[in-house]
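Students often ask what a 'structure token' actually looks like in practice. Rather than answer in the abstract, let us consider Cytochrome c-type biogenesis protein, a protein of 251 residues. Its sequence is given first.
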Amino acid sequence: MLEATTILDAAILPAMFVALAAGILSFLSPCVLPVVPPYLAYMGGVSVSDLEQQSAARRRVFVTAVFFVLGLSTIFLLLGLAFSTMGRALLQFQDYFSTVAGIVVMVLGAHFVGVYRIGFLDREMRLDAGDKGGSAFGAYLLGLAFAFGWTPCLGPILGAILSLAASEASIGRGTALLAVYAFGLGIPFLLVAAFFPRLKGVMGWMKRHMAQIERTSGLLLWTVGLMMLTGQFAAMSYWLLETFPALAAIG
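Now compare that with the structural description of the same chain:
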């Protein structure tokens, strides 16, 4: 019962904000953003030009996109459950674990900034879900395959959120962080499916500035790692409570 009533409180708000930002940055990563239009078109059984010109096609694509997001969210929630369970099992070593997790996240952040490159994190393993375009079930399968196949490419950002989930040492709170991450990654898919013609220019601008976006992601990760290493997440929680007393009523 205690687990269910302490999932959301002011102490977890900074981590949830980071998880949301990480999901959005994952969507903007070089291995996701460029393939969004063809993926959406394939899932809906239409062409990219149909997605751009026909509102009926966009409605069909939006429905399949919902199931696609449910598929990838399933995998991320399972990962959150697994890592938070591991963190709870290692509760007696929590201080050491937080230190190691902070260092790992800083290393991943430096990879994104470009200080060095970790080879296997630049590769992606695409799983073939078969010819499933045009159906809700097929879109769900593609979501599962997407989450599995792009995990190496999303590794630096996803690794940071999994480290946060494990450091929570609470199954409910850790899984909630991955749910927020999946929300940050999945909602942009739905927005593109619904408003592709209007967002085409924005997506083009993002592709042209991919290097700057990647460095921003790395800087965010490095900062998160430093905060985990120095215990500043707890300090930020206290600051939130002092600045916004109403947050004390949450949870």
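One point worth highlighting: The chain has eleven helices and no strands. Ask yourself how you might have guessed this from the sequence alone, and why that guess would often be unreliable.
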